[in-house]
Amino acid sequence: MSGESSYPTVTDETALRDLFPAPKERVILKQMTSLDVYCRRLIEISPFVCLATSDEDGRVDVSPRGDAPGFVRVVDDVTLMIPDRRGNNRLDSLANIIANPEVGLLFMVPGIDETVRVNGHAALIVDHALCETFTVNRKAPKVVIRITAHEVFFHCAKAFIRSKLWQPGSRVERGVLPGLGQIVAEQIAGKTLSQSEAQKADAVIDDAYRNLLY
After folding, report:
1. Helix 180-189 vs helix 195-211: angle between axes, to the nearest 10 degrees?
2. What beta strand segments (E) does the chain contain?
C-alpha cells in the first residue's frame, strides 16, 4: 500500500505506552464483567448498535444494527440477544461469529453522548420459538445472535462532543452524495451513469427500503 514505509511506526506495547500518560484509576475500575442497571437502561433505549466481528485470520468487520429502541433484548446481567434483521445476505458478521465468536458492541442513543461498550462471546441461535418472539411486521428473523458479555463499560462523550454528532447543525443535506443505488451501480460498472440510469438504480434501493426492511 502506498505510504506504508513513509512514517515511523510503533510496534510494541511498551513503546506505545511510553507515548501516553498512565490511565487514571477510575478508567480501569469502571470496566465490569456484567451489565449494571445503567448499562442495561442505555441498551434498552438504544435503537442502534455497531457489531464488530473478525474472521479466523483476524480480519475485522463492523456492521451497523438498528431497529426500534429495545430491539436488543437484555436477558440477564450478562446475556444479550440481537435479532438478525433482513440484510444483503453477505452474512459477513454471522460467518465471522462461526469462525471467531469473540465480538464487540457499541450502543448509541441519539441525544446521549456517552455510549456503552460490550465485549463478549457470540453464538447463533436458530430456535424457531425464540426467533418468533422477535417478529416485526409478521417477519421473524432466521437467526438471533446471543452475546455473553465478559467486559462492559460506559465510554466517555469526548468523541461525540468533538464531532457534534447529535447536534442539529451537524446534519448535512443528503444531496451531497448521490443515492446508494447510483453509487453501487457505478462502482460495479466502472463508469458514470446517465441521469435516467441513476434514477432507476436509486429507485431499486428506495423500493427495498420501503418494502424489504424485515
Report:
1. 120
2. 48-54, 60-66, 73-74, 79-83, 102-109, 112-125, 144-155
Nearest residue to 66 (alpha-carbon basis) of 38, 86, 40? 86
Strand bridging mode 73-74 / 79-83: antiparallel
Cα torsion 100, 101, 104, 109: sign: positive
Q: Which secondary-structure segment (H or E) carries 167?
A: none
Per-residue pLDDT tens digits for 95-142:
999 999 999 999 999 999 999 999 999 999 999 999 999 999 999 999
Residue 67 near residue 113, CB atoms below 8 Å? no
Q: How far apart are CA 20 and CA 113, in angstroms?
A: 24
Q: What domains can you pick out in the chain, each with its CATH number?
A: 20-163 (2.30.110.10), 175-211 (no CATH)
Is residue 79 within 8 Å of residue 147, measured between CB atoms? yes
Residue 3, pLDDT above cutoff 80: no
Q: Is 118 helix (H, G, I), strand (E, B) or coil?
A: strand
Ordered DSSP codes for 21-75: PPPPHHHHHT-BSS--HHHHHHHHH-SEEEEEEE-TT--EEEEEEE-STT-SEE-
